[in-house]
Amino acid sequence: MGETPEIELFDNPRPERDYCITIRCPEFTSVCPKTGQPDFGEILIEYTPDKSCIELKSLKFYMQSYRNKGIFYEALTNEILDDLSGVCRPRWMKVTSRFTPRGGITTEVAAEYKGS
User: Fold this and answer.
1) What CA–CA distance (Å, rounded) separates 74 from 56?
2) Rounded to two decimals, what is the model's pTM?
3) Does the annotation count 83 as an active-site position?
Protein backbone atom coordinates (compact mmCIF):
# COMPACT_ATOMS: atom_id res chain seq x y z
CA MET A 1 0.00 0.00 0.00
CA GLY A 2 1.22 3.52 -0.79
CA GLU A 3 1.64 6.50 1.44
CA THR A 4 -1.21 7.84 3.55
CA PRO A 5 -2.86 10.74 1.71
CA GLU A 6 -2.32 14.20 3.19
CA ILE A 7 -5.19 15.62 5.22
CA GLU A 8 -5.72 19.19 4.09
CA LEU A 9 -7.10 21.99 6.25
CA PHE A 10 -8.72 25.38 5.85
CA ASP A 11 -8.99 28.29 8.26
CA ASN A 12 -11.79 28.10 10.80
CA PRO A 13 -14.19 30.89 9.80
CA ARG A 14 -15.27 31.44 13.45
CA PRO A 15 -12.29 30.56 15.70
CA GLU A 16 -13.70 32.68 18.54
CA ARG A 17 -16.75 30.39 18.87
CA ASP A 18 -17.10 26.80 20.07
CA TYR A 19 -19.17 24.78 17.61
CA CYS A 20 -19.28 21.13 16.64
CA ILE A 21 -18.65 19.68 13.18
CA THR A 22 -19.99 16.17 12.54
CA ILE A 23 -18.70 14.14 9.60
CA ARG A 24 -20.16 10.76 8.67
CA CYS A 25 -18.30 8.28 6.48
CA PRO A 26 -21.02 5.63 5.96
CA GLU A 27 -19.20 3.53 3.35
CA PHE A 28 -15.97 2.82 5.23
CA THR A 29 -14.06 -0.36 4.37
CA SER A 30 -10.97 -1.98 5.84
CA VAL A 31 -9.72 -5.57 6.09
CA CYS A 32 -9.76 -7.98 9.03
CA PRO A 33 -6.10 -8.79 9.77
CA LYS A 34 -6.99 -12.32 10.95
CA THR A 35 -9.25 -13.48 8.13
CA GLY A 36 -8.38 -11.14 5.26
CA GLN A 37 -12.11 -10.53 4.81
CA PRO A 38 -13.47 -7.00 4.25
CA ASP A 39 -14.96 -5.10 7.18
CA PHE A 40 -17.72 -2.63 6.40
CA GLY A 41 -18.81 0.15 8.67
CA GLU A 42 -19.35 3.80 9.40
CA ILE A 43 -16.84 6.24 10.84
CA LEU A 44 -18.30 9.19 12.73
CA ILE A 45 -16.02 12.18 13.37
CA GLU A 46 -17.17 14.91 15.74
CA TYR A 47 -14.96 17.85 16.61
CA THR A 48 -14.77 21.42 17.83
CA PRO A 49 -12.21 23.15 15.63
CA ASP A 50 -9.63 25.59 16.94
CA LYS A 51 -7.73 27.37 14.15
CA SER A 52 -8.33 24.85 11.35
CA CYS A 53 -11.07 22.68 9.86
CA ILE A 54 -10.66 19.43 7.91
CA GLU A 55 -11.13 19.67 4.16
CA LEU A 56 -13.54 16.92 3.09
CA LYS A 57 -12.09 15.84 -0.26
CA SER A 58 -8.72 15.08 1.33
CA LEU A 59 -10.51 13.31 4.19
CA LYS A 60 -12.27 11.11 1.64
CA PHE A 61 -8.95 10.05 0.11
CA TYR A 62 -7.52 9.46 3.59
CA MET A 63 -10.47 7.20 4.50
CA GLN A 64 -10.16 5.32 1.21
CA SER A 65 -6.53 4.51 2.07
CA TYR A 66 -7.87 1.98 4.61
CA ARG A 67 -9.70 -0.01 1.93
CA ASN A 68 -7.00 -2.69 1.68
CA LYS A 69 -5.38 -2.24 5.08
CA GLY A 70 -5.52 -5.09 7.60
CA ILE A 71 -6.28 -3.49 10.96
CA PHE A 72 -8.34 -4.26 14.07
CA TYR A 73 -11.26 -1.92 14.89
CA GLU A 74 -9.63 -0.67 18.09
CA ALA A 75 -6.36 0.24 16.37
CA LEU A 76 -8.21 1.75 13.42
CA THR A 77 -10.33 4.07 15.56
CA ASN A 78 -7.37 5.31 17.57
CA GLU A 79 -5.18 5.72 14.48
CA ILE A 80 -7.79 7.88 12.75
CA LEU A 81 -8.17 9.98 15.91
CA ASP A 82 -4.39 10.40 16.24
CA ASP A 83 -3.97 11.34 12.57
CA LEU A 84 -6.84 13.83 12.46
CA SER A 85 -6.22 15.47 15.83
CA GLY A 86 -2.50 15.61 15.08
CA VAL A 87 -3.10 17.57 11.89
CA CYS A 88 -5.89 19.98 12.84
CA ARG A 89 -5.31 20.28 16.63
CA PRO A 90 -9.00 20.71 17.52
CA ARG A 91 -10.27 21.82 20.89
CA TRP A 92 -12.05 18.46 21.14
CA MET A 93 -12.54 15.45 18.86
CA LYS A 94 -14.26 12.09 19.06
CA VAL A 95 -14.02 9.30 16.48
CA THR A 96 -16.54 6.47 16.61
CA SER A 97 -16.37 3.40 14.39
CA ARG A 98 -19.47 1.23 13.93
CA PHE A 99 -19.08 -1.98 12.00
CA THR A 100 -21.71 -4.20 10.42
CA PRO A 101 -22.41 -7.56 12.05
CA ARG A 102 -19.99 -10.46 11.62
CA GLY A 103 -21.22 -13.74 12.99
CA GLY A 104 -24.12 -11.98 14.68
CA ILE A 105 -21.87 -9.56 16.60
CA THR A 106 -21.64 -5.81 16.07
CA THR A 107 -18.76 -3.68 17.26
CA GLU A 108 -18.55 0.01 18.10
CA VAL A 109 -15.34 1.70 19.25
CA ALA A 110 -15.06 5.34 20.38
CA ALA A 111 -11.91 7.33 21.14
CA GLU A 112 -11.69 10.93 22.31
CA TYR A 113 -9.12 13.72 22.16
CA LYS A 114 -9.16 16.76 24.43
CA GLY A 115 -6.95 19.62 23.31
CA SER A 116 -4.98 21.80 25.63
Assistant:
1) 23
2) 0.94
3) no
